[in-house]
Design goal:
By secondary structure, the chain is α+β, with helices and mostly antiparallel strands. The chain folds into two domains: 41 residues; 168 residues. Helix content is 19%, strand content 42%. The protein contains two helices and 14 strands. Strands 3, 4, 5, 6, 8, 9, 10 and 12 form an eight-stranded antiparallel β-sheet that branches. A four-stranded antiparallel β-sheet has the order 7-2-1-11. The longest helix has 39 residues. It starts with 47 loop residues before the first helix and ends with a strand. About 5% of the residues have low confidence. It comes from Medicago truncatula.
Length: 260
């Protein structure tokens, strides 16, 4: 009597005999290759500190931009309320009289051309505001004719009160040699029938005050055009025509070495 076949064990062998496939042949054993030079994969740890710093930087930038926008919005609101309540206007200037006491142009053959001038200027500074007071520093006054400088002078510092007019006087004079281009430009203007053109340019700084508010000093330039002058005959001064004259006021903003 034969013994029944024994059950296979957990290692796939029957009574110590290797396991076979369906054809009775032994099943192939899979070999595992080991490469000592292969680098072992280690997952990189996430840098939480770097992520935290980046989030903090983004948060700071966001709040900084938001603060700047809020401040600009607040300034715009305050400016709008200020304009609605007080209706501020820029100061006004006008030329009332310009007397030409001397306008001598000498052109000798053996030396450079020479110009000697003397002007008496009268102008009015007006403050049309009901709530603003202007405080002016001394003015630098320059006269031009077709971009040729023909006179220099100054005006003293003064205060312009609310709804006030101030009359100012200045003496402009010049004595200089002219180059060929300046001489040609000046001669062309002197030949005009309506008289040679004169431009008055004034530079100063002004500070404004309203109630308890005071501004910082800002530069302004006053440019008056439309003046026509004539060369005086003899010792009597000539009076320039200022009927068509007009003055405009521009802010002078200085950034580093440049003025705008």
């Amino acid at each position: 009597m034969t013994e029944p076949p024994s059950k296979p064990n957990g290692n796939g062998a029957i009574n110590g005999v290797a396991a076979t496939n369906g054809n009775g042949n032994p099943a192939p054993v899979k070999s595992q290759l080991y490469n000592p030079n292969r680098q072992v994969y280690r997952p990189q740890q996430y840098n939480r500190r770097r992520r935290s710093n980046r989030s903090l930087c983004c948060c700071c930038c966001f709040w900084t931009i938001l603060t700047v926008l809020a401040a600009a919005f607040l300034v715009a609101i305050v400016g709008a309320v200020f304009y609605v309540l007080y209706h501020p206007h820029q100061p006004q200037f006008s030329i009332t009289n310009l007397r030409i006491a001397k306008m001598n142009l000498k052109t000798p053959a053996d030396s450079p051309s020479h110009l000697t001038t003397l002007f008496n200027l009268t102008l009015i500074a007006k403050n049309p505001n009901n709530h603003l007071v202007f405080f002016y520093e001394p003015f630098t006054v320059t006269a031009f004719s077709d971009s040729v400088q023909i006179g220099n002078g100054s005006l003293p510092a003064f205060d312009s009160g609310k709804n006030n007019q101030t009359s100012l006087r200045s003496v402009l004079s010049n004595s200089q040699d002219l180059d060929t281009e300046s001489l040609a430009s000046l001669r062309s203007g002197l030949k005009k029938k309506r008289g040679f053109p004169v431009t008055i340019q004034m530079d100063t700084k002004v500070k404004m005050k309203m109630e308890w508010l005071k501004s910082k000093k800002v530069g302004i330039r006053v440019t008056c055009e439309g003046i026509r002058g004539t060369v005086p005959a003899g010792k009597s001064p000539s009076v320039a025509s200022v009927i068509d004259s007009e003055c405009k006021v521009d802010l002078r903003i200085k950034i580093w070495k440049f003025s705008f």
